[in-house]
Amino acid sequence: MVFLFLFLPIVLMLYYASPRKVRNLILFVFSLVFYAWGEPKYVFLMIASTIVAYITGLLADKTKKGRKPWVPKVSLIVAILWNMGLLLFFKYTNFFIENANSIFGLSIEKMGLVMPIGISFYSFQTLSYVIDVYRGDVKAQKNYLTLGTYVALFPQLIAGPIVRYKDVAEQMAKRKETISNFAQGVHRFTIGLGKKVILANSIGALFDAISNSPQDQMSVTASWMGIIAYTFQIYFDFSGYSDMAIGLGKMFGFDFLENFNYPYISDSITEFWRRWHMSLSSWFRDYVYIPLGGNRKGKVRQCVNIMIVWFLTGFWHGANWNFMIWGVYFGIILLCEKLFLLKALKKIPKFISHIYALMLIVIGWGIFAFDDFGKLTQNFKNMFGLSGVDFANHQTLVWFTGYALTFVILIFTSTPLIKKIGERLKKAVPAVYSCVLQPLMVMAILLISTAYLAGNSFNPFLYFRF
Amino acid sequence: MSKKTERISQIIMVSIFIIFILGFCVWTFFTKDRQFSEMENRNLAQFPEFSWKQLKEGKFTQELESYMSDQLPFKDSLVTLKTDTDRLLMHNLQNGVYFGSDGYYLQNYKEFPVQVNKNIGYVNELAELCKGTEIDFMLVPNSISVMSDKLPSVNNTEDQQKTIDKIRAGLDKSIKFYCPMDELKKAAADGAQPYYKTDHHWTSDGARVAFDGFMKFLGEDELKAKYDVKELKDFMGTLYSKAPSAFSAKDTMKLYTDTNNKLTVKYVDQNKTTDTLFDSSFQDKKDKYSTFLGGNFPVVEIKADNAQQDKKVLILKDSYANCAMPYFTSMYSDVTMMDMRYYHMQKLTVSEYVKQNKIDKVILLYNVDFFNTDTNFVEMTF
Question: Do residues B144 and B53 share a domain?
Fold first, then answer.
């Protein structure tokens, strides 16, 4: 609420009231304020990270004359070590300590580390910048402020997408803010807000209810319902954030690449990963898979490479075993698809391959959703009826009737159907659509989202109830 | 589409957004702040004081968050919009309240066996301490069990009858236990309204039905008093506050006065004496139910000059008892109400009070939800 009704109006006003030259400065300063809002001390870590990227970036430029040939290489290595070191230290130390303790029977004390918000995202961004400079794909940025703005840019700071420097390099220096862009941005941001606040949070409540309910209330159907709820929650949450980031970017004249493209309409897992969190999968493709040799060094090497990439992808999502299993799980499926399954899938009817993909996706989220191993296995036992729970019970019916309509809405909104209807309408009645219908929709979503935000902070104090 | 309409549509979009976020911003910060929310029944966060220390500890930002969410313009209407959107999505249970048919809000019930067993134990202990004095217990079911036909067909509320049977079985045999379930159900079936639609309490009419049943059960004479009725309209109770819907019905509250019976109502700890069971200062507030005796107090002693029986009665109670007082005071000449939530660390324990004041009988009047959750019954045993 502070973001929507205080931060954003102030930034927008100052941004548009000031001359072009200082607009990056405004974005930079307010991005730091945004970052510092929840956790002030880690701002300095981010600034330090940017300084490292700035210096190593300048030195990694191979085209510069009169430079010793080892300099770029060393600075690239420094950048890699710095970023990976940060990630390992802040994100994974406790995980390693925990496992070392349990494996070797040690009792090293865990460190009281709180993971800095967004560190996984900005580490990958600064790293991609230095690598791109080293490869000569992009020129090193001589202006610290410009680079700092790129790293800290608040729309994408916390939950992505992972914007690559080479995609926005030109926009950083000179971009054109237009009404058309702003209007698109409003539309996009509002959709993202609605996805997150209305849809993701609603269905998230069902997942919470089911995953926190005692074992004797569970059933096979309920555990599937729970994990399908999670499937929707994570999509609408994450893609909602991405939409908001892209929309906000547009308001400030940026064009970020898309991050999601209706992943749940995929007919194979290969296709799914081309539609889901695209900025992450392409990052791993460009900076891990291809440097490892990709598919150019023979089938065996390719298989190894795929497994490495997917293990890392899983691990990137969090310091826990279940994320690694989740990564490896998709690695194996993708490998199978690459080797033979994809050909087979093409031959069978579309809806069967669609069901195949959805099943594997949902089961994947079943691994992803629980970082407690006991809960994870319990849930899978429930899903496949191995724990002796009923197929369905009264509680299942209660959950189902409460959320059936929500599920229907979620199914529709995760397909391009609404977009297509919009395009139809735009063709049929262009003026009505764009001057009346679309604004009305935006207004409705804004209002209802605000209502949901208000509802979350609405806590009647009814202690002296009786 | 022509360039011009495109431009117009873009300008509309941009203006909607700017007006929306700027409007809420300006409205929040430049209008007078509310101190208290009647809807939420609590004080609202005020603008936080700024200091570098507060900022460093992250307190300032936190308090600013609560300030903005508490002072959000049109907050009550927005929450109503959320409730109704959720209802549209078929979420029948919100904030622990079911949307029943005919406009009834029904508070969900779930038994807490540990607390119930403890409370049974405390009541038995009290009976032991007050041996020789008659102890009667009226346990009132809540609307969710009496009006269960109003519930959505698919629900997972628990049956209060089970709890009631458990309490009946667990109580010492010397305690005369009565539950007006059947009487209240019959009244509802006959078209009376024993419970409010929007509040968790019973109505004065519901209390009357139960009172009559209780007297019959105890073998007392029928209540003969004649009452004047005053109606308070537009009552929206606590259950409405929990899930405010724009389509909620409003309740009417009835105040019964026995005109031939002069009362002296003494709020002992407050040093206040009045001659009425009603505190009219609550009539125009949202919390209308507090019109009955002005809410809950540790000890209220009521003397009636024209009661049917010349008896000293101690009522240990929750707020359900408040609207039943017109009937009790017409029946008994000396009625003391004691609320264990506030009767803490007093000079006399309950049993000492009974002895010193020569109480003829002790009546316990509680509703099931309260007996199921309240943790103050232990105070009876000190």
Answer: no
